[in-house]
Amino acid sequence: MQRRVVRERLGFAPDEMPGGHLVALSRPGELAERLDAYTAQLSA
């Protein structure tokens, strides 16, 4: 349901990664890399 809501209300597909509800605890390194990549895209 949340995927559909994001597409309909925000107009983009959500970026997902495995790790359950606490991705910051289960995959902190991968999450940090992804957030760094988002920041780099905004700066470009």
**Count of beta strands:** 0
Low-confidence runs (pLDDT<50, min 5 residues)? none
Estimate the mean pLDDT confidence. Answer: 92
Straight-line N-to-C gap: 33 Å
Q: Please give the radius of gyration in angstroms.
A: 12 Å
Written as H for each helix and E for each strand, in order along the chain, the element string is HHH
Q: Which sheet architecture does the biggest sheet show?
A: none
Query: How does the overall form come out from the CA principal axes?
Result: flat
Helix content: 55-70%
The helix tally amounts to 3
Strand content: under 5%
- Based on secondary structure, the structural category is mainly alpha
How would you describe this protein?
With 44 residues, the chain is an all-alpha fold. The chain has a domain at 18-44. Helix content is 66%, strand content 0%. The protein has 3 helices and no strands. The chain has helices spanning 2-10, 23-26, 28-43. The radius of gyration is 12 Å and the shape is flat.
